[in-house]
């Protein structure tokens, strides 16, 4: 193995990436915009989970709608009331699941409509019934808060955005680019040099890891200045988990890069890998309560273990000992993907 040749490939690949200012800028801007959008939509302590229509009531300002809400239903925090001029307008919204319940203001007893196919409608129905008929106060005893520090939705969501950015950068930055090099004949020319396949793949992987770490550092600092994230655990432990996750996903990209000259086919394979990981690795939402087979499928994905480890350190203050399972699985994935990628690699086809 010649480190001078590896260094030459490493430097040339980095220069290619940083000189493409559009790709570099978008790589930084996209996760930030995504995070800012979700912060605006789902942020804040007054976020409403359920929507209840009320008629007759003029749609418009919150104060006007609040005057239509029966006094017994006012102050239910998870419910947002939406005014409608008449029953037909409200029922149409209920039919298309744009609201979870429709009630008629001023009716006694309170008349309401819910959709039998909407799970949220059932929850709102029970919530309002409970609010109108509260359990005897003597039977209730408010317990202390479970968490010392409340975890905002964005604290849970941020590692998902970071993980998704690493996944796309690692897979497309290695898998797609090397296939393009092979198609354009770049690899055929490199084969005529003393450069070995191991040196070439190692340089590609190290370059991608460096680029991702650089982008991640800028993204983290920028988002932290705006959203003020709090890390309960150690930054060093966090960096180790990110590094192992980065390694495993980049090594997975090498499998795509090992064969093929068709960019379209490589793109299809990358989509086949990235989309299931995005939905099953708890990037956007938790799989708590999902079928067992779905959770088992999720465990077979490296991004799941990366996000689990990062969230444990960030939100729960876990150390490396508490995330050793995630570290071992990520290390195992890395070795497996590297071995398969090295065995399958071809300069020409």
What is this structure's SSE topology?
Elements lengths: L2 H17 L1 H22 L7 E6 L6 H7 L10 E5 L3 H9 L5 E4 L7 E2 L5 H14 L20 H32 L1 H6 L5 H31 L7 H24 L4 H18 L11 H8 L2 H15 L7 H21 L5
Parallel strand pairs: 1-2, 1-3
Antiparallel strand pairs: 3-4
Describe the structure.
By secondary structure, the protein is mainly α. Helices cover 64% and strands 5% of the residues. The protein has helices at residues 3-19, 21-42, 62-68, 87-95, 119-132, 153-184, 186-191, 197-227, 235-258, 263-280, 292-299, 302-316, 324-344; strands spanning 50-55, 79-83, 101-104, 112-113. It has a four-stranded mixed sheet with strand order 2-1-3-4. Strand 1, helix 3 (62-68) and strand 2 (79-83) form a beta-alpha-beta unit.
Task: Label this structure with key terms.
5% strand; single chain; 4 strands; mainly alpha; 13 helices; four-stranded mixed β-sheet; 349 residues; 64% helix
Question: DSSP strand (E) fraction?
Answer: under 5%
Strand order of the largest sheet: 2-1-3-4
> Radius of gyration from the CA trace?
26 Å
Count of distinct strands? 4
The structural class is: mainly alpha
Beginning-to-end CA distance, first to last residue: 24 Å
Q: What level of helicity do the residues show?
A: 55-70%
Number of helices: 13
Mass-distribution shape: elongated
The whole-number mean of residue pLDDT values reads: 80
How would you characterize the largest beta sheet?
Answer: 4 strands, mixed
- Could you state the order of secondary-structure elements as H and E? HHEHEHEEHHHHHHHHH
User: Poorly predicted ranges (pLDDT <50, ≥5 residues)?
Assistant: 136-146
